[in-house]
Each structure stands twice: as C-alpha cells, then as structure tokens.
Amino acid sequence: MKPGHRRTARALEFALTLGDADAWSDFAGLAAHHLTEAERAGLAFAALARLAPEQAERVACLALGAAGAPLPAFLAVMDEARLWASLASRAERKAYTLAAFEALGGSDRAAFLQHVSGRAAA
C-alpha cells in the first residue's frame, strides 16, 4: 500500500469514528493531497451510488453548491435562464418549472404546451 493511501485510510477511520465535521474535513484534505483525481472520483461514486437518489442529490448539491434562486435577468433573458438551468439541481429545475408554468396565463400555457408537445419525450 502506498504511504499516502495508508494515511488517507487512517484519516477515514478517524472520520468514521469521530463523525464530526472537523474529522471529515481533515479526511477530505488528506484525500485531496494523497489520492489522485480518479481515486477520489471512485470514492465519491462508490459512496453516492449506495445512497437513495434523493439523498445522493442532496449530498451532491451540498458538495457542489446548488444554483439557488435565479437572479433577475439583465439583458439576454433566455441565455441567462439557460445558464441558471445548467447550474441548478434537478429539484430546483422541477420546482421553478412548475411554478413558472402555474404563473402563466391561459394562452401562454397553451402556447407552452404546444411548444413542448412537438418535442420527443426523453
């Protein structure tokens, strides 16, 4: 076993034993220093893959930072909306899509449904 792997494994043991934010932060720091990006990705994948989808999404959003509420558009409304959507979590996209749809008037709702019904469902 590589010395860096041994140190990282020991830090994981402490994090699991102590279970506090400082111990997990120390583990993350040692992992970042001693493990390759591929090794860290494998570790993250293994942990996320064994969580319920909703829990995995919450953990990923905490780690990556969710987009939060969209900011008011300044110039190019559609470009800014697309940028926000690319940063938003699945839950954020679903919530804001439904809220925006519900806020549309009848003719705008009909036009929206016409627009999306022409696209193939994924």
Gyration radius over CA: 21 Å
Number of strands: 0
**Contiguous helical run count:** 7
Low-pLDDT residue intervals, each spanning 5 or more residues: none
Helix and strand element order = HHHHHHH
Strand percentage: under 5%
What profile does the largest beta sheet have? none
Question: What overall geometry do the principal axes of the alpha carbons give?
Answer: elongated
Average pLDDT works out at 88
Assembly form of the protein:
single chain
Number of individual domains: 2
Ends distance: 45 Å
Structural category: mainly alpha
Helix content: over 70%
Q: Which key phrases capture this entry?
A:
122 residues; mainly alpha; 2 domains; 7 helices
Q: How would you describe the overall organization of this protein?
A:
- The chain is mostly helical and 122 residues long.
- The protein folds into 2 domains: 3-50, no CATH class; 77-117, no CATH class.
- It is 75% helix and 0% strand.
- It is built from 7 helices and no strands.
Give the gist of this structure:
This protein folds into 2 domains: 48 residues, no CATH class; 41 residues, no CATH class. It is built from 7 helices and no strands. It is mainly alpha-helical and 122 residues long.
What's the layout of helices and strands?
Layout: H1 3-18, H2 21-34, H3 37-49, H4 53-64, H5 77-87, H6 90-103, H7 106-117
Helix pairs in contact: 1-2
